[in-house]
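seq:
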Amino acid sequence: MDTAGIMRLALEMAHMTKVPADSGIWVPGRKIKKVLFSVDAGTAEIMLAKEMGYDLLIAHHPVGPARLTFSQVVRRHVDFMLEKGVPKKVAEEATGELVSRIDVRAHPTNYLHEVDVAKKVKLPFMNIHLPIDQITRDHLLKAIQNSGVTTVGDLVRSLGRIREFK
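struct:
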């Protein structure tokens, strides 16, 4: 397996056709057998993965250039709210501050730092954000629809029975 194949698999599982702005392959790799996954990945995780003999480090949250384009994906929340009947103006106002905060926080950062470290130590490095979020969202929505719950308490108990939430 290689990094491109892993990304294709994530996209396929999320029913997506292209890599979203918050995900990417930053240091490509081939012949990957052992992968370290991390919600957030910085220099420490890169060095740990290298030291422990991993063939690839996959971060969930955006790294590298994806940090600069992450807010484009957050705007998707407007569509989610519209699906549930929230007026467009209300949905846009609800996400506006978050989008602004993400943009302001991203631009002064050294967004290539982790990518440069991974290149230097020759460790394949990528992040997969929206596809994983979508796979999780689909899984949760299916579980909720199949649960037959009528109260928030029942919903919490029902979700607590999902293996990944135990």
